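Dear colleague,

Following up on yesterday's call, I've attached the two folding results inline so they're easy to grep. Please treat them as preliminary; we haven't cross-checked anything against experimental data yet. The first protein's sequence and structure tokens come first.
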Amino acid sequence: MENECKINFSPSQADLKEIEDWLILESEKYDDGFYCNWNIIKNSFERNELISLELNDTPIGFVVWHQNAFFLDIDIMEIHYDYRRMGLGKKFFEMLSEPFKDKGIIAIKLFCEPRESEHFWRKMGFIQFPIRGYAESDLTFYKPLIEVCKTTKTPNEFNKIELWDVEPYQSKKRLPNWCWDVETLDGELIKPIIQACNVNWNIRWTRNGKIEKESKVKYFSKDNPIDFSPFMFIQNLDN
């Protein structure tokens, strides 16, 4: 079955009607699904922000999404009730991730709804957002689409980046929450850092054993557009 599936980045009006029909049936028969969000789905279709999964040219799944500066938000993802537990959700996600990655998207963010879907997204390698001090659900998750620098509990004391989940004035007597070993080539990180965070949290960069820079995340890098982003994204280190 998986070989017969394909994704459609520009579903037709007829495809949308097919999705609507099985969402209505699903809602009436099982009291399940996302027909309650039909206006969102329809509006996303009109903005060309709906992707369908097709089996024999019939839509059996869909994703509603919108793009931010360098990451993608998945608003809704659903597989037709009759085709669940067949590995199609995983296949669908993998098929749509690569084209977005090729367009420069570095991470995907989503909200696990319903809550029961949390297990699926964790299996897909999604990471739960830390508590950032905003009105944000504990079911907010993300996944980098590129190879990134991993956190470590035993960082290189001479070359490292540390992040606290508090503002600078609160961090003085606290250990950092996240640490990364810093490896660079001509000023570029060999593997970039992506971390969900609050832009007012404290970050410190140590180079050759000396604190090179310490500030709020939003002031750390000239090239990092993070004033309103949920992510700290560091590709290079500058003063």
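Below is the second protein, in the same order (sequence, then structure):
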Amino acid sequence: MKPTFTFHVIPYLPERLSPLRELAFNLHWTWHPAAIALLRRLDEELWEATDHNPAALLGRLNPSRLDEVLADEGFLVEMKRVHGELKRYLTKNEHHTKTGSHGRLTVAYFSAEFGITDCLPIYSGGLGILAGDYLKSASDLHVPLVGVGLFYQQGYFRQYLNSDGWQLESYRENEVVNLPLELVLDDHQEPLTVPVPIEDREVNVRVWRTQIGRIPLYLLDTNNLSNDPRDRNITAQLYGGDREVRLHQEMVLGIGGIRTLTKLGILPTCLHMNEGHSAFACLELISLLMKDHGLGFEEASGVVSSTSLFTTHTSVPAGIDVFEPALLQKAFTPYLRSTGISLEGLLEMGKNKKNNPNEGFNMAVFALRMADQCNAVSNLHRSISQSMFSPLWPEVPLVDVPIQGITNGVHIPSWISNDMAGLYDRYLGPRWAEDPDSTKTWVKVEKIPDTELWRTHERRRERLVDFCRRRLRSQLERRGASTQEIQGTAEILNPEVLTIGFARRFATYKRGDLLFQDPERLTAVLTQRDRPIQVIFAGKAHPLDRDGKQVIRSIIHFIQDQKLRHHLVFIEDYDINVARYLVQGVDVWLNTPRRPMEACGTSGMKAAANGALNLSVLDGWWCEVCGTDVGWTIGRGEEYGDHEYQNQVESRSIYDLLENAIAPLFYDRGRDNIPRGWVARMKSSLRSLCARFNTHRMLEDYVGLFYLPSAKRWENLCSNGFSGARDFQSWKSRVTRGWSQLNILSVEPQLKIPMTVGEELEVNVRVVLGKITPEDVSVDLYYGPLDSQANFVDRSTIRLAHVRAEKQERHLFSGTIPCEESGKFGFRVRVLPAHPLLTNPYSLGLILWS
């Protein structure tokens, strides 16, 4: 039986304690230790029991405890101070970004998951954690950005293992009334509802808001009583359900997200899609511009593509959502009728090869066709992405495929321990958290006394060991283990032993079992009498990934070996809280992906910010690390066809490094028991890595490379009633129609044999342009050194100057190639369309080579 009426009960707070509500409902507290300490003081046991959820904590506080707090003048003074800090933070107008004031800039940042804090479990792994860190840096740097995501009623699964080590999943309902979220209301103080057409019906989407410092994050929720029961479950689980549910989720995120922003009066000057899940936002934005401003599809599409950015995070096609055309036909037909876009046109935009009826609808390909700007998340990942998506630009050389590279980072204040933060405050200065990408700041780590840095790190290792013992005891009690086993957890791990952490999603390419290739050798390495080593594992496999689950099971079986029970542990239900303890307490962070499948990886960056050293395969971000004094590398970046052989080679490399380099350095102590050589590496790692691999630097890269140029293009396209958009589309149509008339008549190098260093090679090029003007094109010299097979080793481009018009629509262009070094060189002539508003010169599919 269901009730006739429902009502919500909100926490009661006396007026004098009202600042606690503002502190609880702004997630600014998640990266400010003083705020966390204040909330913890209310009830430490309840703080832990609620997964560090201040909204639930306030709702469950005993009235007698509130009376005690009201009588505690020390608490009230601290509350006033912490609340004052939040107020000052929110009202401070200083811009920290190196790009200065942002003018007419509004970024809409779409992501399927956001990992901000453990009490808001709407994330699964790296993609969501990155998105959460990104919003925090946007808040710190005053970037005008809004986040858009989904509120999942059950979120991602909770992991537990049976006695055989097999992963099982459970789902916990997220009680939204006890989360730091607020329902968005319309002008009539009614819940804001956004209709999203799916199949033959409209799904009514509610909107929740949470505040991350200065940044609002809007979360869309279909669990609305007015919806059909099947639609209420669209946003039930993150990455749950079948393909149809996933498609519906992505329609709610993209279409519903833009409709939500529109109702809130927000029109973004840059649409940023964090992975392809939200690509339908482009479609809805095009539809909006057509309806509200009278633009045609091509005109509106030109505005959206010129101001949209797609960030790809996957290195393999299997990681991309691909939908059967029949699913799109069923879900989209009514929606498309209202937009004037044909189903066939939509399907073609999601195919690598057009007019291929057997190809599915690829969300990444669709995002690439809809957005003229794209970036990968590390330098190596850029190369991988260029290769993976090169079929979209068949005439473009691989190195010129228009995908940029911006390496990910982490929000350092969110991940370092309070102990390290205090150390940085004393020796780096109080502004280190506001300006973590300053190399001048991190050079000051040399001022930290070795003893103080090491003792601080040892305290964190002790707390990590204590945390693991408590978690292991809880795990064993849940499984019904014997009293002896449960009591034995008090002696598992040693707070003075070299501690290695391995925690991540258990996809098979991450090779969580690489360490166990040779069990006898591993046992010998871990159990050396004078140089023992212990390893802490954590991580989840996707519920449908049986191979990933088998990796976890194999690790559990190794752990049960009596010789290794005190050297290996697996912590269940990996989440932000577990990750925080690990990165703050381990000595070494182990990373073993199969190169080149790790797009970036950021867990090692978090560990490095806490003074841990990395032991990693040369993949993702670790390829960009300079110097050998910041950690250790497994192999030299080799890629193998035989994976079994690769596992053997690289596991032996790990054993050798642990036995002959890492353990000896860790246990080489002086009279004061300080490992001076190890501490020197810690300082080198902090100095070299923290200033580069953080989200402040990352966000400033996005602002300078993408956001500000997008805002400028938006202004030019939309001025004077979108006349710029109409003119731009007219230009594209004219150039496209006339491109077939182009012809490179002659290429005339003024070549001496041989050329000498310091000379310049003049090149004259005659081109027939037809009805296209010289201003419509860029005629380029594409040149560089050649290998023995006459292939370009590297390349540069020089735009030729238009010299004069000649008879019969011919035009002369001229330029020079500098001969700066000796060797074998070559060049070609390339013609591309050119326009001040053309973001990506390859987007029209027009290119002419000599």
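For the second protein, one point worth flagging: Residues 15-91 form one domain.

Best wishes,
A.L.
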